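Hi support team,

I've been running sequence recovery on a batch of backbones for a student project. Most finish fine, but this one hangs at about 90% for roughly twenty minutes before it completes. I'm not sure whether the input is malformed or the queue is just slow. I've pasted the structure tokens below so you can try to reproduce it. Let me know if you need the job ID as well.

Thanks,
M.K.
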């Protein structure tokens, strides 16, 4: 974790300097963006492992930046909000943030949350054609899903959409993906309703459970779905 890069997006130079000092003390590399436009440019150029993102900023606000980041991929994001109410908190999670911190905050808490989020979103072990966790091995080249400990290949039972959903979720175990994200990333162009994801997930969960894999595919009420590490 010591070499990981954190992009701090904060228009208050004093807050940015404090976060920079605390994160670098813990061994992180940091870059600072003073507004949303600079943040998106730095994200594209530097490919940080995590973004600490203030909501209220000039040029582009945090919501606009978060939306753009989610259209690019799944870089972990921790939102900084000045509102200690449920609206910003729930909105942050629903729009794809991994965590949030309310201002004023203890910078040591922000560092702890950065470390926790990075631990949580560590990808499954990925080789050129294999993704594997404790319960399943997914071979992309051979279109195979081996379930442990039975070594049963359930790929022939899965539709292409179910296979794509399982692969996508397995690349970031424990990360919560919204229906909208999964719809865009995994479903055919003709399927445009987020609730369609529920049907595919339900069928995929049933097939996993029938193969003896219980509790791996999880519904996070109000937010989306994740694949556990079991």
């Amino acid at each position: 974790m010591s070499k990981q890069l954190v992009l701090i997006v904060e228009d208050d130079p004093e807050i940015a300097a404090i976060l920079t000092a605390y994160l670098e003390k813990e061994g992180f590399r940091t870059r600072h963006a003073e507004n949303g436009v600079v943040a998106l440019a730095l994200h594209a150029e530097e490919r940080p492992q995590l973004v600490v993102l203030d909501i209220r900023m000039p040029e582009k606000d945090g919501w606009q930046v978060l939306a753009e980041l989610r259209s690019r991929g799944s870089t972990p994001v921790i939102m900084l909000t000045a509102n200690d109410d449920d609206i910003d908190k729930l909105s942050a999670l629903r729009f794809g943030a991994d965590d949030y911190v309310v201002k004023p905050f203890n910078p040591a808490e922000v560092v702890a949350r950065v470390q926790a989020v990075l631990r949580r979103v560590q990808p499954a072990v990925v080789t050129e054609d294999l993704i594997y966790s404790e319960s399943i091995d997914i071979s992309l080249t051979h279109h195979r899903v081996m379930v442990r400990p039975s070594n049963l290949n359930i790929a022939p039972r899965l539709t292409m959409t179910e296979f794509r959903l399982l692969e996508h979720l397995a690349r970031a175990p424990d990360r919560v993906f919204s229906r909208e994200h999964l719809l865009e990333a995994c479903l055919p162009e003709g399927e445009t309703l987020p609730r369609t994801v529920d049907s595919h997930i339900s069928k995929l969960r049933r097939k996993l459970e029938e193969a003896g894999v219980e509790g791996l595919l999880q519904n996070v009420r109000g937010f989306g779905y994740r694949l556990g590490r079991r």
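--
Follow-up from support: It reproduced on our side and the slowdown came from queue contention, not your input. The chain has two domains: 5-120, 125-227. No action needed from you.
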